[in-house]
Design brief:
By secondary structure, the protein is mainly beta. The chain has two helices and six strands, in the order αββββββα. A hairpin with a 4-residue loop joins strand 2 and strand 3. It starts with 8 loop residues before the first helix and ends with a helix. 10% of the residues are buried.
Length: 86
C-alpha cells in the first residue's frame, strides 16, 4: 500500500527541480491552490537567468512533478529546451 505524504507549502517552495537525467531545471517558487477544491493545482517553476536575474516562471500542473523525498528535490520529465520555449 502506498503511503500518502502531507507537505507544507513552505517545505516545497525553494525545492530544486531536475529532469529525468538529473539536470537541474530550476526551483519551485510558488504553489497555486484551487480555492473551490482546496487542491494544489500548480507549482510555479522558476528557471533560466543568472543569479535570479532574467528568470522565467511557468505554472506546471502539480501532478507533473515527482517528489524524490530521499534526495530532497522534485523531478519534472521535460528537457531544458522545452522549458525555454514555453
Amino acid at each position: 500500500m502506498n503511503e500518502s505524504q502531507i507537505l507544507t507549502a513552505r517545505s516545497i517552495i525553494g525545492d530544486k527541480v531536475r529532469n529525468a537525467e538529473g539536470v537541474e531545471l530550476g526551483e519551485i517558487t510558488e504553489i497555486l491552490i484551487n480555492s473551490d477544491t482546496a487542491k494544489v493545482e500548480y507549482g510555479v517553476l522558476s528557471f533560466g537567468g543568472f543569479l535570479g536575474v532574467g528568470n522565467k516562471n511557468i505554472a506546471v500542473p502539480y501532478e507533473a512533478f515527482t517528489l524524490k523525498n530521499d534526495e530532497g528535490y522534485f523531478v519534472l520529465n521535460v528537457d531544458q529546451e522545452t522549458l525555454e520555449n514555453a
